[in-house]
Design brief:
By secondary structure, the protein is of the alpha/beta class. It is built from eleven helices and twelve strands. One of its GO terms (molecular function) is tartrate dehydrogenase activity.
């Protein structure tokens, strides 16, 4: 029987619609020789919707999304709408409402991808960041006191619950064990004497249950340096919401740039839909020009395939991305090419088609 997955597509703002269109195109090609099909349903939410309706998504948007198997998001943010509104009223709202407490960002230097580090290859840059995605520094707790006065004071409170901290660290240990790799925790316990000391304590407690998993712990400033000087130190990495957000952008620079940066927001229990997105943002300066790099969106589509259990298909998509980059003939300007967004997507589809033809010939 054909397996049908219902996918909510939120193209969003800026270059979001342009890159998501290519991701959808690749997903449809990837499953062509399988019993998997996707039913894509589009939602016009984002900053333009906000300017028309005074909100980033429909009032019952969360209930509408609840019926889907996954969410495919393009980008959030555009001039004219404050960033804290566009972020908190759409992206973070979805993450929190659907308890997508695991953020997965691969930092992998694919064949053909540019790396700013000299004499560094894919063997050295191959990390999997697991970022706490539901609380921590982005919990939204705090206050703004005495607005407009000379004693104006703001409080931004990080929230680290035992449940939230332990479940993300345990998820990371399970992942590292499954992959046969080491696990590195990144914190700042020397300065943040409550939250990060607690994080380090929980990491040590959970580590005692996984004696087969080699572990390392670094302060975030030292980790930033080591990611540049010795990236091979890092395999699976677990860290807090803020540190994970920052360090994965650094990692993206090592692995070819934001045009290759993919992210997955996972609800491991699958009681709610998970969400997949490129992490490059809406790039309003190039929106509508047809030159945005769609490879991050395509990579995030492969994460969706992997989440659904189709690892081989997901791997085929990554191999197709690598072949396109190795060829070097059809790339967008950010990768020193001259191709349009749609041309890159078309080339990935062509490579997948040739893979399908080869597989069919062998069958």
């Amino acid at each position: 029987m054909t397996k049908l997955y219902k996918i909510a597509v939120i193209p969003g703002d800026g270059i979001g619609p342009e890159v998501i269109q290519e991701g959808v195109k690749v997903l449809e090609k990837a499953v062509e020789l399988t019993d998997v099909r996707f039913d894509f349903h589009y939602f016009p939410w984002g900053c333009e919707y906000y300017l028309q309706h005074g909100r980033m998504m429909a009032e019952d948007g969360i209930e509408q999304l609840r019926q889907f198997d996954a969410i495919y998001l393009g980008a959030v943010g555009f001039p004219g709408v404050p960033d804290h509104i566009s972020l908190w009223d759409l992206l973070l709202k979805i993450r929190k409402e659907f308890d997508q407490y695991v953020n997965i960002r691969p930092i992998t230097l694919l064949d053909g991808a540019p790396c700013p580090l000299k004499n560094t290859g894919k063997e050295q840059v191959d990390m999997l960041f697991i970022r706490e995605n539901s609380e921590g520094e982005y919990a939204g707790a705090g206050d703004w006191l005495f607005k407009g006065r000379d004693n104006e004071t703001v409080l931004q409170t990080s929230v680290f619950s035992r449940k939230g901290t332990e479940r993300i660290i345990r998820y990371a240990f399970e992942t590292a064990r499954k992959m046969g790799q080491s696990l590195t925790s990144i914190s700042k316990g020397n300065a943040l004497n409550y939250s990060m000391v607690f994080w380090d304590q929980v990491f040590a407690e959970v580590a005692s249950e996984y004696p087969d998993v080699p572990t390392h712990s670094y302060l975030v400033d030292a980790a930033s340096m080591l990611m540049i000087k010795q990236p091979e130190r890092f395999q699976v990495v677990v860290t807090s919401n803020l540190f994970g957000d920052i360090l994965t952008d650094l990692g993206a620079a090592l692995a070819g740039g934001l045009g290759l940066a993919a992210g997955a927001n996972i609800n491991p229990e699958r009681t709610h839909p998970s969400m997949f997105e490129p992490i490059h943002g809406s790039a309003p300066d190039i929106a509508g020009k047809g030159i945005a790099n769609p490879l991050a969106a395509i990579w995030s589509a492969s994460q969706m395939l992997e989440f659904f259990g189709y690892e081989e298909l997901a791997g085929s998509v990554l191999k197709a991305i690598e072949q396109v980059m190795v060829e070097g003939a059809v790339l967008t300007p950010d990768m020193s090419g001259k191709a349009a967004t749609s041309e890159v997507g078309d080339r990935v589809v062509e490579v997948l088609a040739s893979m399908h033809a080869a597989a069919k010939a062998q069958a």
